[in-house]
């Protein structure tokens, strides 16, 4: 079955705190849609925790094609970023970044201890988040002469398509969207409209 939903965060998680042998691990989870947003969030947390030792993170973007990155930020290889990413996978969320900020407490935790601490801090941040399910939508842009308005609107009503924007002049432009699973039927109905130009794109 073609899946057309994905899970993401409704809002930032707020701050969580996990302690181990005097080290403090502050966890944060944020909804994001671009790497630029990830960078902005990291810059903000580095300013907020300017005396911390490490700002480790993982993010995942996309709904159908997933893109992720994990960063250990100076911790031993794969001891921070990948355990954080493992929790993103475990919660089944995307369009999300999880950041764990570590203050070193003077006692080394060892690689196993670090993996457990970063995994726990990431888990706490995601548990503190509201996770919601969204649909993968297909967006159509319709361009047509004003005289075709009625028949276009009839198809939009019949197919229960959501109107995102409309420009009504001599030449009209209507942007609509529907769930991916309904997109083929909607496209077929729209393509049947004479003298109406249709273009589409995926909207995760």
Automatic annotation (TrEMBL):
Coiled coil: none annotated. It comes from the Bacteria. It holds the Pfam family Impact_N. Residues 21-126 form the Impact N-terminal domain. One of its GO terms (cellular component) is cytoplasm. GO terms for biological process: regulation of translational initiation. Belongs to the IMPACT family. PANTHER family: IMPACT FAMILY MEMBER YIGZ (PTHR16301:SF20), IMPACT-RELATED (PTHR16301). This is YigZ family protein. It comes from Flavobacterium cyanobacteriorum. The lineage of its organism: Bacteria, Pseudomonadati, Bacteroidota, Flavobacteriia, Flavobacteriales.
């Amino acid at each position: 079955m073609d899946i057309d939903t994905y899970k993401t965060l409704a809002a930032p998680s707020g701050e969580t705190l996990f302690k181990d042998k005097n080290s403090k691990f502050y966890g944060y989870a944020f909804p994001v849609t671009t790497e630029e947003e990830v960078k902005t969030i990291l810059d903000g947390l580095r300013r907020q925790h300017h005396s911390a030792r490490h700002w480790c993170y993982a993010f995942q973007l996309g709904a159908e094609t997933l893109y992720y990155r994990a960063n250990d930020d100076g911790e031993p290889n794969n001891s921070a970023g990948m355990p954080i990413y493992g929790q993103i996978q475990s919660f089944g969320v995307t369009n999300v970044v999880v950041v764990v900020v570590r203050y070193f407490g003077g006692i080394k935790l060892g690689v196993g201890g670090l993996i457990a601490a970063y995994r726990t801090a990431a888990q706490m941040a995601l548990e503190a988040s509201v996770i919601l399910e969204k649909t993968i939508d297909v967006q159509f842009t319709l361009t047509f002469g004003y005289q075709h308005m009625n028949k276009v609107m009839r198809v939009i009503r019949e197919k229960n398509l959501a109107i995102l924007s409309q420009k009504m002049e001599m030449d009209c432009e209507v942007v609509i969207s529907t769930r991916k699973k309904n997109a083929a039927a909607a496209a077929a109905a729209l393509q049947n409209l004479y003298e109406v130009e249709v273009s589409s794109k995926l909207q995760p």
